[in-house]
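tool_call: predict_structure(chain=1)
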Amino acid sequence: MLNWLFKRDQLNEAHQQREEGRALLKRLSQNHTFIEVTPEASDTGYRSLILAVEEDSILLDELFPGADNLKLSPGRRFDIDCREGGYNISFSAVLLSEEQNDDMPVYRLTVPDYVEHHQRRAAFRVKVPAASRMTVMLSGFGGAAVSGVIVDISSNGVRVNVGGLHPEELDAGTLVSDARFTLQDERIKCQLQICNSNFIRRPYAHTQLGCELRNVDTATQARLDRYIAGLQREQRRVLYQQDIDHE
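tool_result:
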């Protein structure tokens, strides 16, 4: 009986998250908010718009600069970020098909199970390139140690993907007293305060942990800031080169 009630509550929560996410996506579409799109296994970002939010899919406008060199086959994941109404919004969705609208390519994606949204943070967050994402070991939170991957980073926080459904001990509010990862050949040890924790079923089952960095010494903070500044410079250089190539 208790298991049935627990599963029912999980399903209700998942349905509520999905409907809240759908409402956010509709607002982005109605307001013609620009979104930043990063295809899976690509370090290049593109700009687009959400054209429509339908029952089982969302429709994205063409990618800018053009994605002619990309081989976008169904099943590829798109990571999407934007800012709207004082909030950072991010989600992942899977490509269903590439279609044509007035002889221009548009992209039909799955409706995401969860749309992350929170007030803008003071520190700017940057994506970690897929080729250099860092494995992080999490322990000291009351459960068995788990490993994850840092997918984006700011001077005071990280977002971590953990495979599968996370342990109950890694809910929002948990302090991970021992977090370790390697940053450019330097071992980093710190604490992580979990601010949000969300299970995502597609395109693969994983949990996203939004975390605040704690107990970071001055030397480590300086290394983090230099690393983030380098990522920002490289990403600006790539975008600048794309603009030149498409002039």
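agent: Helices lie at 2-30, 218-245. Proceeding to next step.
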